[in-house]
Amino acid sequence: MDNKTIYALSTVYGKSGVAVIRVSGSNAKDVVEKMTSIKTVYLKPRYAYFTDIKDVASRETLDKAVVLYFEGPHSFTGEDIVEIQCHGSRAVLGSILNSLSKIENLRLAEPGEFSRRAFYNGKMDLTEAEGLADLIDAETSEQQKYAIRQMEGGLKNLYEGWRQELLKVYAYMEAYIDFPDEDIPESIKESNLNTVFKLIKAIDEHLQNSNHSERLREGFRVVIAGPANAGKSSLLNAVVKRNAAIVSDIAGTTRDAVDVNLDIKGYPVIFTDTAGIRSSNDVIEKQGIEIAFNKIREADLVLGLFDASVDTPEIFHEIKKESENKLLYIANKCDKLTFEQCSELKNAGCLLISAKYNQGVDELIDYIAEYIGKNFTSGSNLLITRQRYREALQECVANLKRFNFDKEIELSAEDIRLAARELGKITGRIEVEEILDKIFGSFCIGK
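Above: the chain sequence. Below: its structure as tokens.
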């Protein structure tokens, strides 16, 4: 990353009422000097100026816009920033960006470079940067809520607190390495062992409470499985409130998995309709059934749907082996049942619905939202939203569990150093150049 001043469109390119062009770097004020009539000597930080935007070379007026100046280090990137809030037509944006390209020492920003500079300048750590990326990509209220918590430093404070505890232990170990003739007092040994034990317990609980919480970003997987003609496609259509899957009385109509993305009470959910599970000699249908079982294995929740007028939950013995403790029995076509039959199925733990007449569908949606909230979110509201966090925490615990005073003190100190380094990988408190490109490369150009 060079020290040139960068610029980019920070809003979506295209037709809009207002667009924002952002400039960051030591030469940001040159933009005001060269493209407006404002004298930079009088430029006030955080003050809005309504002015003509002029071409650098021809001095032709390109637009009338609002210009703001943010003086570093009190800005998003920690550098001087100028924002041009102009009209969002393609012609205006193209002419302003073209004019910016003519200013010396300015260049177009790379993907994520504004946020990357903010990281390098200490304005945010890696978890906050990734929280910002998640907020930009958020499609549901729950994704938005957790992204804001992460962006505000919730995870950073947690992991950095653990890291500081380890650094205290490491400092004691290094002190006794420097003075090998001194014996470590038993009180110091006991205190350090107690600190490590508490950290192992805290990190393990964090890992367990955030089980599969990466799903909050990717989408929770709910699979509808069952025999042919049980009403799986009808249920999918009832949930999404449109004809997402073909409904037919002909067995084997659904031969592939049909995925639909939904927002269920703030949670992102991928609903999947699968092929009816039965014996078949049809090569294509057999492939569809195999796909269905693969989807069942990958699912977070399996809806075992059956026609309650002809079948019972016992038909799911094979699916139950694949879905472990994530199977919910759904008795469809309850409109054909007697009151006694309905009561019997409820007592057996079945949820009763009629996909055709949209009965019980709202209750099913409530159940799914409650199931996700109960099984995939953390009581502390601090979730492990990325696999790299989970892997680093697991490595941290593994190093801590190797720590003891029964071996050479240098080896014990190394266990602590490696554990602290794993936590540092998450927040960026160590050399993490190898993962920066991957993180910031996913950002849009103007962010």
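DSSP finds 16 helices and twelve strands in the chain.
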